[in-house]
Structures are given as structure tokens and as C-alpha cells.
Write a structure and sequence with these properties.
486 residues, membrane, Amino acid/polyamine transporter I, single chain, 2 strands, mainly alpha, transmembrane
Length: 486
Amino acid sequence: MDGTQARKGEHGKKEKPKDEVVHLRREIGLLPAVSFIIGTVVGSGIFIAPKGVLMNSGSVGLSLLVWALCGVLSLFGALCYAELGTSFTKSGGHYTYLLETLGPLPAFLRLWVEFLFVRPAVASYVSLAFGRYVVEPFFAPCVAPTALIKVVSILGVTFVVAVNCWSVTMASRTQVTLTFIKMFALVLIIVPGVIALVKGETKNFQNGFEVDTLTLDKLPLAFYNGLYAYGGWFYLNFVTEEVINPNRNFPLAIIFSMVTVTVFYVLVNVAYYTVMSPAELLMSDAVAVTFANRALQGLASVIPILVALSCLGALNGGFFGSPRMLFVGAREGHWPPIFSMIHIHRRTPLPAVLLQYPLVMLMLINGEIYQLINFASFARWFFIALATLGMLIHRYRFPLHPRPFKVPLAIAVIFTVVCFFIVGLSLYSDPWNTGRSCAFTLTGVPVYYLTVHRFRLPNRLKHIFNYCSWQLQILLEVIQQEVQTY
């Protein structure tokens, strides 16, 4: 009798209905993938970064060239990541590729600096931009209260976290909707700019390549501002295990998205310079709003709302993609196991999403994060360069490894060399922020050797930690994946 029951129990376990099995499901098709990339790339950057690009490049023509080159460089990087995403079928993006090609220490350091410093800084910056664009129109021409901007920013972050905790499908649909809204915002800027250009408004483009004010040490900062606006092309790689037919949809989504974004970004900047002089652009803290007041007087009040929704879309994309890196890191034993668990009903990586929330809140309340763009960019681009270098090393060491999509060698080499060059030059251009970035990254080395490489902390601490993890698992209703998804 006992044997029969045991066999029935085994059989029942095997025959568990497919829709009840707890795992991350492949729910992201081509349109959501394109929307995910475009929606994450097009955030606050294109409405704020033009000032930084112009300030550090020194002329209209050179700033437009920087925008175009940043787009080409981002496309090259995205193509490299298309190869990585189809070669290694795990989610996790940068972390997974560093782990597979260069080993566990670089992968752990990427995880460490991303989640404790870089991601909260970027999310805080975008959410504050969201709050500012929502609040400022109600107080114009007076200065909006900083406290109110922060409260609205916190509400925006809370909404995005709630959506991503509730449902993968809801987060994906939210992203598609917000992407269409933000592309409409860009079209609304481009059209009047092109009309003015056709009518002969070209005075700001005359002598566009005067480079009297250009200095070599500032040029990397111009690229950092431009690349910040293009940042996000790698987020699809964070959710590889949830993309339908990734061998086909990865390259298609990446190529279409990055070409579209590059064309739109260059046209938006042309529109800005058609309506505004370089001096006016440098004086503006909200370039899109200044543009709307000049060229779209009847719709000027709509632009801040569209920009705010654009920021919300970038925030949603970040909270959707980056927790998957933490999820995979925990699954590989590089982070506490609780973060590799999924909600039993919602099928979302709930603990990994929730971890970001208090970190972003701390940076939001502190508020002193605007100088962290260079800090965040250094860490991000250094590890991206390491990942593509790892790809080249892996190609050499394992030439027979399946690569459904293979980027031309020249593109991979150019991208890797340019990334290391920009990162190296930035150490000279902005030694304070890049030095801090190096220091924060290196703080992960002792943590790795104390907790991951070999656990050297007292057993009492380990027992307390395990007890807390167990209680959290019960409270959050989360368990490990029941099937392998890669």
C-alpha cells in the first residue's frame, strides 16, 4: 500500500499541470521586445542630455556628430550583446556574460556595483526628472518646492515597483503603452523643427564646427552624456529566458530599436537647434519645455506631461530588467538565495524587484545624485567593455560553441577598443567621480572572498541570516523555480 501511494505521489509530481509550475515564462514577443528596448532607452536623457553634450563638445555641428556616433557605438554594442544573448541562454545580461567568459569575480563585482550604487543612482535620477516635469508646470514661472518633487518622484517609483511585482504581463503592456506615448512626444518635437528648417531657419547651423572651445579632456564627458541618453539597449539581455524565440527576436529587436532611436535622437537635436540658439540651450535646465514654449505654444503644457511619462517608461524598463540580473546572480550563489525566488501566484521575481525600492528611496531622499551620471557611466561602460572583451576571448577559446547570431569581428573589436578608450580618458577628465566608481567597485572584492568564494563569517551570523531568509520566504510567498528555463 505504501509503495503504491509513493508511486502515485511521484506520478502526481510529474503530472503537475503546466500552468501551475512556478517559473519565469516566455511572454515577451517581438513588439514587447522592441518596446522594451526603445522604452528603456528613451527616458529623461534626450530631454536633459543635449545641454551636457553641447557644453562638452563646444559646437552645434560637433554635438550632432557626437549624438550620431553615440548611436552608432550603441548599435555596435547592441549587436555584440545580440551575439552574447543568443550564445548564452541565461538571463542576467552583463553578469551572465562576465561569469561565462571571464569568471566569477568580475561577474560578482558587476552585480555588487550595479545594485548597491549604479542602479539606485540611475533610477533616482530618472524618477526625480519625472517628479520635476510633473510638478514644475503647476508652479511656473516660480520654482517648484523640492519636497513636492521628491514626493511625486517617490509615488512614480512606487507605482513602477507595484506593477513589476504584480504581473510580468502588466509590466510588459505598460512598457508598450508608454513607448508609443514617448515616441509621439519625440515626433511632436521633430515636426515643428523640420518645418522651421524647411522655411530656412538655419542660422544656428552656420559655422557649426567651430572648435575654439573644445578641449580634449571634455570630449569624453560629451560622449558620456550622449551615451547616457542611449543607455538601456542591453536591458533585453537581462530577460533572455522570458523572450519568445530569442534567436530570431533578439537581433531583430535590437537592430530595429537602435536604428530607430538614433534617427529620432539626431532629428530631435536638429529640431532643438533650429528653434533655439546654442546659448539658449545651455541656459535651459529643461530643454524640451523651452523648445515647446517657442515652437508649440498651443501644446506647450502637454510636453512636460509627455516627458514625465517618458521618464516613467524608462523607470519601468529598468525595474523590469535589472532585477533579473540579481535573480540570476542569486541562482548562481553570488547573492542570498531569497533573491532567486519567484512569487507562487504572480510568477514575478518579487524579492529581487523589492530590493531596489529602499535603495532608490534612500538616494531620492538624499537628492544629491546629479553628479553621479559620470560615476554610473564609468562603472557601466567599464563592465560592458569587459563583457565584449570576454566575448572575443570566448570566441578564440571555444570556436565551436553555438552562436546563432555572430557579429562581425571588426564591429566587436571597434566597440571594445572605443569603450576602453572612453573609460580610460574619463579617468583623466573626471578623476573624482571615476575614482569613486573604482573605489566602490573594489569594495566588492573582500565581500566576494568572505561570503562567496568561501564563507568565512561566524556560523552564528549564518544561522541568523538563514532564519531571516526563511521568514521572508514565508512572508513574501516565494519559492525557487520548479523547472529550468535555460
